[in-house]
Amino acid sequence: MKDKTANAFLCPECGSEDVKDVLQSCVSTVVSDEPSGGVLQWDTCGQCHMRIPAHISERWDGLTIDQAKREWQEVYRPKRKR
Ligand SMILES: [Zn+2]
Predict the structure, then answer these.
(1) pTM, 2 dp
(2) What average pLDDT does range 43-69 have in this prediction?
(3) CB count, 10 Å around CB of 50?
(4) Å from CA of 49 to ligand 1 middle
(5) Cα 3 to averaged position of ligand 1 atoms, centre (Å)
């Protein structure tokens, strides 16, 4: 049985454990009016292709899955146009 308290990737969007890509953010690409400006590492989900801050998808500092999902939805998740 897998222990999900450690740094295993888990997508807060679709729940997939497949990580497709890991990006180190480049300072020159930072958009200043977005909260994502402070994120240093991004994981791309292999299933839904969302780009997720690594501290959320890997739950650094003991973040729970519920906390990670909430932070993702409230802060980082791109707003969809209707
Ligand atoms: Zn996903």
Answers:
(1) 0.74
(2) 94
(3) 19
(4) 6
(5) 19
